[in-house]
Design goal:
The chain is an all-alpha fold. The chain is built from 27 helices and 2 strands. It has a two-stranded antiparallel sheet.
Length: 521
């Protein structure tokens, strides 16, 4: 008899899991995007859309906001809590003076008064243009993920219109009216409508949509929703949105083969690491180190594969923690520390709805547990922590300690060795797991990788520094060249790899294995 984990992972389930991670970044409860998709599909049907258009709506809705974290690093500089900003944005028609008032009201909310005034002045001088570029980063990141999941050109085109508006006041291209893809026009309404209906009821959700008729939203679609509101919003609070959206459709029914599943989880890894410029390449690095260590100690092939996949997704939950916390240059408050301690739990929550992914999540959630019970999120002790989880934990510590963080520089190899062995002596990390990880790290190849897209070694070095969020002057200082030279390199790099934003450059760098400690030494 076939077990639930033997049937494999369907494409729709992968995208569904990614939508649950997107909910975290939007500051919305789980299944917001899935309920939005129910609304979007009902609205498309009520509007008389063709079957093909309704199929496009399905995929566009599930992926429309997946790029929301690509600008988290930039947003945190202005607003601190990027998640609260996105969550609160559902209350406003995002254009003109309402948008300006909204953004100004969220500037530096966690900063002292004088610091807030300084941030506000800088934002008014240059922040709005940077905010506009963040829309481009979102679209490019979403398109990259859609491409890696093998979705159609029609879906990718629609995803590029995420922030366009019916009145032409959107971004990045200022498209107007029916220049905006029909599927995206439907999804835009469904996104805001889901939040308002859940919080305030059908009548107020309908009034909100009507208030933005002809500005943010397509007036004809607004009229359809108004006329069919009862059936479009019917039963949203009483259904399991995962089952209703994913298990009742023919779409995405193909099962991802084993190699492709690992490739898809690499996309998940890169997506998680976009949350902060300090994390780039971390998840892939942990996966490679942990799986190499598992192979060195002779674990079975299926367990090695599970360890690698858990390493790839172990930090998916960081999306649910504000970038203002991850990027903080200083000691975290007790409240901030508690929020950080939730991220393994959030990883497990994102993956738990699909049996094969749930198995991976059940291992990933353990990467901060410690043998003496001092870890999190559950404070498990040695008897409850399998050896596979002990390997992932050791790999995570070794890799993280080699990376720069806002409050410290990455530690050299000798310090990392001493730190891990010290954790063994203190009874927190497993000695065999640590030695396996150190052995793997010691014999790992340090040869320069083959560079993609015709990049030169210096261009690859510039790409990694740009992806890490460093300004041009700081890159110039590190490389001992002029800022003009750096700007020229950046222009050439962006042209070669076909992007125009830091977030998209970061995705390219991670996808091609350029971001890891000592990658370009």
């Amino acid at each position: 008899m076939e077990s639930s984990t033997d049937r494999g992972v369907r494409v729709a389930e992968l995208i569904g899991a990614l939508s649950l991670a997107t909910d975290l970044g939007l500051g919305q409860p789980q299944e917001h995007v899935l309920r939005q998709t129910m609304i979007a599909r009902r609205l498309a049907a009520a509007a008389g859309c063709s079957e093909d258009d309704q199929d496009t709506v399905f995929y566009v809705s599930l992926l429309a906001w997946v790029g929301c974290i690509s600008d988290s690093h930039e947003l945190s500089k202005w607003f601190g809590d990027d998640i609260a900003l996105r969550s609160d944005s559902y209350d406003v028609d995002k254009a003109g003076l309402p948008l300006v008032r909204f953004m100004v009201g969220h500037i530096g909310t966690d900063a002292p008064a004088l610091r807030r005034l300084t941030i506000l002045g800088r934002f008014l001088a240059s922040g709005r243009s940077q905010a506009a570029r963040s829309f481009v980063a979102h679209c490019q990141t979403t398109a990259d993920i859609a491409d890696r999941l093998g979705l159609s050109e029609s879906v990718r085109v629609a995803l590029g219109h995420s922030f366009e508006r019916w009145d032409g006041m959107g971004a990045p291209d200022g498209l107007r009216g029916d220049q905006i893809d029909l599927a995206m026009r439907i999804v835009q309404i469904a996104d805001d409508a889901e939040v308002h209906q859940r919080l305030h009821g059908t009548r107020q959700a309908t009034e909100m949509v009507r208030s933005r008729r002809g500005t943010e939203f397509d007036p004809a679609l607004v009229d359809v929703l108004t006329d069919h509101a009862a059936e479009i919003f019917d039963g949203l609070d009483d259904v399991d949105a995962w089952d209703r959206v994913l298990d009742s459709t023919h779409l995405g029914a193909e099962v991802v083969d084993d190699d492709a599943l690992t490739g898809a989880l690499e996309a998940f890894a890169d997506y998680a690491d976009l949350k902060s410029a300090w994390f780039l390449g971390h998840s892939r690095g942990v996966a490679a180190l942990a799986s190499g260590a598992a192979e060195n100690v002779g674990l079975p092939a299926d367990e090695i594969r599970l360890i690698e996949r858990a390493g790839l997704v172990h930090d998916l939950g960081v999306i649910g923690v504000s970038s203002g916390i991850w990027d903080k240059d200083g000691v975290l408050s007790p409240t901030e520390l508690e929020r950080v301690r939730t991220h393994p739990y959030l990883t497990e929550r994102v993956l738990r709805r699909q049996p094969r992914l749930a198995e991976i999540g059940a291992l990933a959630v353990l990467h901060h547990e410690r043998l003496d019970g001092s870890g999190y999120p559950s404070g498990l002790r040695s008897g409850s922590i399998p050896f596979s989880a002990r390997i992932v934990a050791a790999a995570d510590v070794y890799h993280a300690m080699g990376e720069d963080r806002p409050h410290r520089r990455g530690r050299p190899v000798s310090d990392r060795i001493a730190l891990l062995r010290g954790e063994v002596s203190a009874g927190r990390l497993d000695g065999d797991a640590v030695e396996a990880v150190l052995h793997c790290a010691g014999v790992g190849s340090r040869r320069r990788p083959t560079l993609p897209a015709g990049l030169t070694p210096r261009e690859a070095e510039v790409l990694v520094l740009v992806a890490s969020g460093l300004p041009t002057k700081e890159i110039a200082r590190r490389l001992s060249v002029s800022p003009r030279t750096v700007s020229s390199h950046i222009e050439h790099v962006y042209a070669k790899i076909g992007v125009s934003t830091r977030g998209a450059a970061a995705m390219f760098a991670m996808r091609n294995g350029l971001v890891r400690p000592d990658a370009l030494d």
